[in-house]
Structures are given as C-alpha cells and as structure tokens.
From TrEMBL:
Residues 12-52 form the F-box domain. PANTHER family: BNACNNG10540D PROTEIN (PTHR31672), F-BOX PROTEIN CPR30-LIKE (PTHR31672:SF13). It comes from Cicer arietinum (Chickpea). The gene is LOC101498017. Pfam families: F-box (PF00646). This is F-box/kelch-repeat protein At3g23880-like. InterPro entries: F-box-assoc_interact_dom (IPR017451), F-box-like_dom_sf (IPR036047), F-box_dom (IPR001810), SCF_F-box_component (IPR050796).
Length: 419
C-alpha cells in the first residue's frame, strides 16, 4: 500500500540564489567558487560583485595602520570590523607578515574605495651630474579580503632642483569613475605658482597619465601640519580637498581670513574642478586646520571654535550649499577625562586651543563617534564619544596606531587585475 509520495527537492530560482549568495562574506564566497563552475561564474560576474559590494557596506571596516618600531616605513595595514572596534575591547592585534606593506614593495595607502586599497611607493634619485632628480612613483591595487594584488604601475618624472622651484613634493589621491568603471589615481604637485594635476587610469595599467586643468585653488595640505588628513576625500565619484583661494606666505593662521577657505572638488568623470562653499556658520578662523571627511555617506566639514568646542557640519545633499547642517557640537569640557589628568585648569585652555580632532566614523545607530586626536604634549590617539550621555573614553587597542591615517573600508570581491 502506498503510504505517501516522495518529497520533491527544493529548487531555488536563479534570482533567489543570487540574492542568498550576496549576503555571504567574502571568505565564504571564495570557498564556494570551488564548488562548481556555474557558482564560480556567478560569483565572479561583475553584476554580482557590484551587488555584493553594496551589501557589504552594511558591515563596514576601518583600516588600522600599525607602526613598526624597527623602521618607519615598515607599516602593517589591517582591516578591522568597525562594530568590534566601537565595542572597545582591550586587545593587541597580532603581527601578521601578510599585512606588511613592505612585503608588497609599498610604503603608504593613498585611499580606499569599494574594497580596494591603493598602495604607493615614492622616492627620489638625484643625478649630481646635471643637478636633476628622478621621482619614482609606483602604484598597486590591493584587495585584502580576496588577498589579491595587482601588477605594479611605475611612473618616472625628471625634475630640476635649481631655483625657483626647489624640491618638488608630490601628493596623491584615489577614487572611482562610475561612468567607465575605472579606478583612478590623482597626482598633483606645485611648480612655482602652479599646482599641476595628472590622472592615471589604474584599472587600465596606465603609467603615462594625462594632465588636466591646474588646481584652481591651493590645497590646504601644502601648509597644514597634518597633510595626510586633507589629501583627498573620495565621495560619489569625486575627490575633494580642503583648500584656500590664495597661496599662503607664512603659517596659515597668520595671513588667512575666513573667506579664503573653500572645498575644491574633482569630478572623476569629467575630470574638471568645481568649488564648494563652506557652511555659513563657519565664521571664525580656527587655531588648527579644519578638515573634511565622509561620515554616514555624506561629506562633512570639521573645525574647532577657540578653546571651547569641536563642530562637525554635514552636507546632506552633495554639492548643494543650502544643505549644510550642524551635525554635532562637542564641548571640550566633556572629553577632558580622556586626556592627561596632570593638565591643570590653567593649562587646559591653551591645551584645547591647539587640539586637533578628526572624525573617523559613526556607529550604525549614530550613538558613538570615533575621533582621532592630536594634541601638544599628548600622543596621537583615538577616543570614542557617546552622543547620548556626552561621555568619552580612549580606545583600548594597545598597538601603536597612526589613527590619522585610517581609511574606511568594506570587504568586496572587486578584482585588482588590469582590464
């Protein structure tokens, strides 16, 4: 007698299978690529890679730049889950040779975009015979999640070191052009009164580049004490810099007025510049340089007010002057507990006047903000500020970290090889 029919196997539609896989982390997906050719084809397809990258942004990371006490250039860069970092565990990150930049023949990270880190090596070789030097620049793209590394792109420039130009300092930025699906490096340097700009298509292995229009203003990184903070902030297909309208003759605080500050934005699609005005509430020159950053997918502008407050403005709609809102105003008095208790009240005012703080990231619920701090007589460190109760604590990672060099990062499957 027949007691029942056999259970039919469950078959997932292609769309549902695609959706389920896009929620998995990179490590799991890399293993699943080995199960079948069809799975490998799906996971490697550009459409799936883009969809997965968008979902990965719900689990943000931050790159921690760990300094080596043996050699300044021998840094390790380790992606670390933001949620875990904001939980503030007492931890020492173990040494892992894989994350050493020297193992990749590089020294610095230029930027982070869609899970790719742009690595840089830059040095100069002088030729005493003709008073010139050759600047050697090398880029690589690195995906730490898939553990893939691109080929080297090597660029060489020959420069005179005779006056009036003197020694030439190069600056770098990194971003993504949506219209062409190309990752680009921006290289800029000043010769005399002109700041020249060249763009290199890293996704195409471009080692020649092309010169675009000169900087219409002067990047603040040329005069600021912390140039790497304002080196170029990527958002929505643009790279942005804090800048001044005119070149500063001396220290920036001596000969600058409030109307000199501006944000300059480079559209990576059209490769043209535009200028963004700062919030109208920014009406006094701060004692330390202001900075820009990306928080909660919006461009933000930060500065201090005398020795009293640290203020963050958010541009709700990118490029629209009227969309600036004051996101946060922190009293220095509420965070005093995280600094040296030996600082007396009479010293605190002077201490705060030259305190530099730079916002790194928010928690998902917006309750906690991580800030990098750089103060006189106090080591560079990071604090966690709780918006609900106006309290602050120091982070408890015991490694020596360059907090001002951290980058936002997401794990992705984006390939590093040249097209």
């Amino acid at each position: 007698m027949e007691t029942g029919s056999a259970t039919s196997p469950v078959v997932l539609s292609d769309d549902l299978f695609f959706e389920v896989l896009s929620f998995l982390n990179v490590k799991s997906l890399m293993k699943l690529k080995c199960v079948a050719k069809s799975w490998n084809s799906l996971i490697s397809h550009p459409t799936f890679i883009k969809s997965h990258c968008l979902r990965s942004k719900r689990n943000p990371h931050i790159t921690l730049s760990l300094a080596s006490f043996n050699h300044y250039y021998d840094k390790s860069v380790i992606p670390f889950p933001l949620t875990r970092l904001l939980n503030n565990p007492l931890i020492k990150i173990p040494h892992d040779p894989y994350y050493q930049l020297s193992k990749k023949d590089c020294c610095f990270i230029v930027g982070s975009c869609n899970g790719l880190l742009c690595l840089l090596r830059h040095d100069n070789t002088e030729n005493p015979k003709d008073s010139t030097f050759t600047a050697r620049i090398m880029f690589r793209l690195w995906n730490p999640a898939t553990k893939t590394l691109s080929n080297k792109i090597q660029i060489r420039w020959r420069k005179f070191i005779n006056p009036p130009f003197g020694f030439v300092m190069y600056h770098f930025a990194f971003g993504y052009d949506f219209s062409t699906d190309i990752y680009k490096a921006v290289v800029y340097f000043t010769l005399g009164s002109v700041t020249m700009v060249k763009i290199f298509d890293l996704s195409l292995g471009d080692s020649v580049g092309r010169r675009i229009e000169d900087f219409p203003v002067v990047p603040l990184s040329y005069k600021a004490r912390r140039p790497w903070v304002n080196e170029g902030v990527y958002i929505s297909g643009t790279v942005n810099w804090m800048a001044t309208k005119n070149k500063l003759k001396h220290d920036w605080i001596i000969d600058i007025t409030i109307d000199q500050f501006v944000i300059v934005s480079l559209d990576l699609r059209t490769e043209t510049f535009s200028q963004l005005l700062l919030p109208r509430g920014f009406d006094k020159v701060p004692h330390v340089e202001p900075s820009i950053s990306v928080l909660m997918d919006s461009l933000c502008f930060s500065h201090n007010i005398d020795e009293k407050y640290f203020v963050i403005w958010q541009m709700k709609e990118f490029g629209v002057q009227e969309s600036w809102i004051q996101l946060l105003k922190i009293s220095y008095g509420t965070i005093r507990n995280v600094f040296d208790p030996k600082i007396y009240c009479t010293e605190w005012v002077s201490y705060c006047r030259f305190m530099f703080m730079h916002p790194l990231c928010f928690s998902e619920n917006g309750d906690t903000l991580m800030l990098a701090c750089d103060c006189r007589k106090h080591p560079k460190h990071a604090i966690l500020y709780n918006l609900r109760d106006n309290s602050a604590v120091n982070t408890r990672i015991t490694n020596h970290i360059h907090w001002l060099r951290t980058k936002n990062y997401v794990e992705s499957l984006v390939p590093t090889h040249w097209n």
